[in-house]
């Protein structure tokens, strides 16, 4: 066992200390518990999950405080995250009924057909650090309703939030072994994902890890694997009379949560003729953003990124873009030495010969100028990812064209790239996911359909291709006499 410590990014204060967990013990506990949980009436499972939601709701401030401290996100945003955790319960109950409920329909005369769903068994859930409660919970709640047992590994950067989330299930009376937590980093993740006792794995995190998991599961088609990964998301700004609103939507898309959202806009694609008007408007707005500690008296727009390593990586990426031909519009700086606060960086990469198609997970926006709307769409699709994309401005016809040609799972008009509704399916194409969308469609990967054709009595006959009794008898006697 290795020691694991979590520090508050905004202050450096120690928040949580523990050790890495025994994966074998957690999987064994889940395997022992899941048959009874799967056999329990659906109404019992829903009652426990509802009780979990009520406990989280009652503790909103305490839980939000923990999320804000451990991630560095503003307290108002952490509160929103807790509300999403609570809302997930009702959404998942509805989604289970909608997507995976029982269905019966007539079959051949005297028979009927049934479609029912069964849980997979023991599912691992691997969570990211940016929404350390809401996103793992988005797998856990639907999986529990469907009758699975869970082994959850939170990000090693947010163990305290992970522990608190699981504690609410315990307080809600979840039977022992149904929800288990293992703490640790990638090595613990690997031990869990490779464990023979799993029936599947539900993952939210980076494309890099998702690809490694996909490779690991390639020879195991018997196990369900749901991958929710990152993006290199475009936002197009086209003709609009409201430049200020367009700038607000770009700022929300690119810099909410300090850019640490999978749906954050990484690339601003702008009509060349609007550039000189729009970019100063965008800069003015970014200059006004309050960047501070989560609990600061003046509520900040954004806090720090998760740790110094991430902040260093982002400032280095900004310099790398510059050294390869990017033209800085607004430098990315570290306003507080030693802490991972970043000022948003904006860089014009139009003249770079080769732009890296990677997810830079922080407040860093790359700008590309284009002359025609067709070029804008081509540029938006110029990525291996395909999570979210927005058009700001333009005509209804242009939006139709953008919608029809965008390769992404979330395609918006005059809305930010982020902030997708939990009541809708959520997922991407390309390197953003493996076609198992989460949120409302999580119900689909938490259970498998069993189709039954049923009759009350075994009445049957073979109509075609059967010899009559006499022929069959004479053939048998021919065989006998040949012996
Ligand atoms: P990450 O991939 O580094 O880690 C995610 C989880 O996987 C962690 O629990 C980690 O310990 C574990 N892990 C890492 N390497 C592993 C391995 N080789 N085998 C098994 N487990 C391993 O992701 P992160 O940095 O914590 O989160 C940020 C990323 O998550 C971004 O790329 C972001 O876009 C993505 N994300 C996606 C969504 C979505 O719904 N599509 C939502 C939020 C975040």
TrEMBL record:
One of its GO terms (molecular function) is succinylglutamate-semialdehyde dehydrogenase activity. Keywords: Arginine metabolism, NAD, Oxidoreductase. The active site is at 228. Transmembrane segments: none annotated. Its EC number is 1.2.1.71. It is an enzyme of class 1 (oxidoreductase). The keyword Magnesium does not apply. The keyword Ion transport does not apply. This is Succinylglutamate-semialdehyde dehydrogenase. The gene is astD.
